[in-house]
Amino acid sequence: MEKLALLYAGKAKEVYRTNDPECVIIYFRDTATALNGQKQGTIADKGMINNLISAHFFTLLANHGLDTHYLRTISPREMLVKTLEIIKVEVVVRNIVAGSLITRLGYPEGTPLATPILEYYYKDDALGDPLVNNDHLAALNLATAAELNAITLASHKINNILTRHLAEKNLLLVDFKLEFGRHQGQIILGDEISPDTCRFWDINSGEKLDKDRFRRDLGGVSEAYHEILRRLTGGNSSVQG
Ligand code: C5P
Known about the structure:
Distance between the termini: 10 Å
Bound molecules: cytidine-5'-monophosphate
Number of helices: 6
Number of strands: 13
Largest sheet: 6 strands, antiparallel
């Protein structure tokens, strides 16, 4: 697979064209941003760790019959994925109160939710990714009713699979963000699943092992990312050439 021109450079990832129009290469960077870009920095080894953790989760989901864009890991910081037509919606799934839900509803951090909450955000940096509902997405033609249904079903299924898997590693899946796209007429999961896009707490101590350590200046940021990789792969994450 030949790596060609840079298609897109985001805050934490770069996307490159390949000689196959159906595939692109994602390169994971160590750069980190928070608070809608107001806070910037780097997290040592983050690109490598997020690449390997995302590959781990995408493989897990594929083993449970879920379509994702992941094809294979091609280097410590790069994965080959299917080309997607991105749907401009971020899906957040919440199991426990944290982050923006505290600000919005005033419930204390750590409050368990009786059932998972699914939220949609319109993906637009300039607007700060505003919260929207099904009607906004349908009325603005961002996704069809059938696509939204597929996204909702997949998001709940992904939550169940990840929650169970992480519990085996003594981790609580507090909340996470997903992005979906269209590929050959199908809705499939894209983007990444990593400590950048999920909140992971240690089941026993409640210690935060995710990007909140960076957002809230808690220290030990890179160590937390390494700890998640270690618990998930036992240090045996394989990189196929
Ligand atoms: O900030 P908030 O509490 O809404 O975030 C919910 C979850 O979605 C967190 O796990 C966060 O890491 C993730 N998220 C993300 N990218 C965004 C917004 C939220 O990965 N742009």
